[in-house]
Amino acid sequence: MPTGVLTHAAHLLAPPAPISVDQLMPDALPDAWKDDATTAYALSISLSTKAGRTLP
User: Contact, 26 vs 36, CB < 8 A?
Assistant: First the structure.
């Protein structure tokens, strides 16, 4: 790992729980959907917001 990437302030977190298809649907993530369409980016942002942290 390059110097400076991992610092004393870093936290090692467990992987997030698996995401089911139901968690990606418009009812679960309405902010990620527009006109019955979405993108992987919009889903990622919405899931991270819902989780309260950036998800991988």
Answer: yes
